[in-house]
């Protein structure tokens, strides 16, 4: 969806529930994927995603176009909800632990191995302060550009670059 289509759909969604449904259909998988990669917990990701769209629906009339796309607004809500999730669940635990021993299919084993690799990286990223987790997740798990991350987090691009550089430096420290 290009920015003009998104803009007209958002304006329509302010008065038409079906238009908001179209926005939901367009962005659900992306927001759920972001929440799942940030939390590595299926239940938490579902809760976060549900809360994001509930808040978006409730607040859509307050959304105004200020050089940031609607998707960036959703990611900002999701980022805040992930932080809330971690605060509420201080004894957080991953629920994506695969059991490779019970699978015979090689392609499924490859998927489990990727999941294992992700969980290992996620474990180290979770040791970083929240501000670094956000930028690393958005940049490397979500493939967002520096410009997109700046819009999502409401920070200048140079600040995002600095956070990313410092976060990767801290990640190197954690890994060694």
UniProtKB/TrEMBL annotation:
One of its GO terms (biological process) is DNA-templated transcription initiation. CDD domains: Sigma70_r4. This is Sigma-70 family RNA polymerase sigma factor. InterPro entries: RNA_pol_sigma-70-like, RNA_pol_sigma-70_dom, RNA_pol_sigma70_r2, RNA_pol_sigma70_r4_t2, RNA_pol_sigma_r2, RNA_pol_sigma_r3/r4-like, WH-like_DNA-bd_sf. Keywords: Sigma factor, Transcription, Transcription regulation. Residues 120-171 form the RNA polymerase sigma factor 70 region 4 type domain. One of its GO terms (molecular function) is sigma factor activity. Belongs to the sigma-70 factor family. ECF subfamily. Gene3D superfamilies: 1.10.1740.10, Winged helix-like DNA-binding domain superfamily/Winged helix DNA-binding domain. SUPFAM superfamilies: Sigma2 domain of RNA polymerase sigma factors, Sigma3 and sigma4 domains of RNA polymerase sigma factors. It comes from Dehalogenimonas sp. 4OHTPN. Residues 23-90 form the RNA polymerase sigma-70 region domain.
């Amino acid at each position: 969806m290009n920015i003009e289509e998104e803009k007209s759909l958002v304006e329509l969604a302010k008065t038409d529930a079906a238009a908001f449904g179209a926005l939901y259909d367009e962005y659900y998988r992306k927001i759920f994927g972001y929440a799942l990669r940030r939390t590595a917990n299926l239940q938490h990701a579902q809760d976060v995603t549900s809360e994001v769209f509930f808040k978006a629906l409730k607040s859509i009339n307050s959304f105004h176009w200020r050089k940031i796309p609607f998707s960036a607004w959703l990611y900002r809500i999701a980022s805040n909800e992930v932080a809330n999730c971690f605060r509420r669940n201080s004894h957080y635990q991953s629920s994506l632990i695969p059991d490779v021993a019970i699978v015979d299919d090689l392609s499924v084993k490859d998927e489990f191995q990727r999941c294992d690799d992700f969980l290992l990286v996620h474990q180290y990223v979770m040791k970083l302060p929240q501000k670094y987790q956000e930028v690393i997740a958005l940049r490397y798990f979500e493939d967002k550009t520096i410009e997109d991350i700046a819009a999502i987090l409401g920070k200048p691009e140079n600040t995002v670059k600095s956070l990313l550089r410092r976060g990767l430096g801290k990640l190197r420290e954690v890994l060694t």
